[in-house]
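Quick look at the format.
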Amino acid sequence: MIEQFTDYDSPWKEVIESFFPRFLEYFFPDAYIVIDWERDYEFLDTELQQLEPDAEIGKRLVDKVAKVWLLDGEEAWVLIHVEVQGQYDSNFAERMYTYNYRLFDRHKKQVISLAVLADESASWRPSSYNYQLGGCAVSLVFPTVKLLDYEAQWESLEQSTNPFSIVVMAHLRTKTTNRNPLFRLQWKLSLVRSLFERGYDREYILGLFRFIDWVMVLPE
């Protein structure tokens, strides 16, 4: 078994920052189309520490905060939560809500909250947080992507030119080859080869190779 040596959060953070527009285009097209990509966007990791300064930093969740400009000229914030270690989290939806309202409270700007779930439970699909009390109702609905669903769409992953199709393929094959290093080696070589076959430029190849090499750990 080789899974225990795999570090998931760092490669996800890096690949999201490197290909942020493509990330939204692939997983969250509704968010992608409202952002003005002609203007600069900015990642602000220090925002996370201010949103929840007492939170323990672990290896299970990736959080990214990006400041963007919308097509209507307004400034907005994009909150990305990637559950990277594949474990059920009963507080996930509440955490999504908490980060959303705290970011809005700090900046008084619109916030887009997005979630990518990398766990292996087909039934766990948090997409909202709400409660009602004394006639008052509070609710947050957020888009969720389940990486497990892409296993049934492997052909579309192979045909897509978006770099995050490779990211998904690497993630899925990392999971399925956990106890078979030789099989993982074969898939790792295949995915790296596909980077060149897709005609990616140098930046894409280096960035995606780094992700593949990072998550698809092999024994010495």
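Next, a different chain entirely:
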Amino acid sequence: MKKKIIWIIVIIAAVFGGYEYFAGKKPVTTYTTENVKRGSLAQTVSETGTINPVDQLDLSFKVSGRVIELTADVGDTVKAGQLLAQVDLGTLSAELSGVRQDLQVQKETLASMKKNPSQYNYEDKDAQRAKIRSAEAAINSALARIRDTKMFSPADATVLKRGVDLYETTVANSPSPVFTIGNPDDLVIETEVPESDIVKVKLGQKSEVTFDALPADQIFEAEVTEIDPASTVIQDVVSYRVKLKLAVQDGRIKPGMSANIDIMTAGKDDVLMIPVRAIHMDGKQKYVDVLTDEKNNITERRNITTGLEGDEGMIEVVSGLKEGEAVITFVK
């Protein structure tokens, strides 16, 4: 019984002693740091785009109708003025016949007025002449629409796309073109850059481009050649169309291919830099905590001035730090 009591006392003492030991021990702060290093910073705007011919044209009929003739197909080379397609006249022939008959009636009416000058004054004859001019305008309008039933190529080009089949009905000024023509050997990359990034993009900036259809390690150089001054809204995002010209044309690159674009908007070499996540704000003042004594966990606040913010979370340090110093990025 005495031995049992002694063991109980020993256990209680051990538990109490352990509690006192750990309770009196201060928690240890652990710092994750990264050294200030020197290197190159690059700032890029990354977007996706599409390859299109420089002078690509979308052709649609100005009148609705059923396609009764197609004289070109994808890949065909066409000349300026060449007939590409035709839709049926529909009611245009009857309409033209009707307005011609009306013109004849109006002319005969005016001739009758002239034969009976006592029954008609100058205003009556002038009004009749206006009816004749209106009938002539109607004839010209009908003839123009009849001419619009035929589609001609506006330039020497290659047919890149065909959007209708024979005997299919097409709608006047449809957003889906009947033909898309252009030069497949003179290509440009088109992309939409959101307003948050467009201020960084300038004419003449270089870019690196890869294509989904080609190996990822094949990188092509391109240059920004055009920035639309007017914006477009795509899925509630204000964007600006930017065009880039490839430095070298490659026969494997075809119109319609998807392109991955990195536009080099800024860059600096031989600069001090740290991770952006190490920076804190005190009002408008930027500062970092520097681990000055790793053995004793001693830190020091350091006000800094920053410059270019590059890709991959790094930023230039203009003043306040020296190369090799350890800035704190995480505290545990």
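DSSP finds four helices and 21 strands in the chain.

See the schema section for token definitions.
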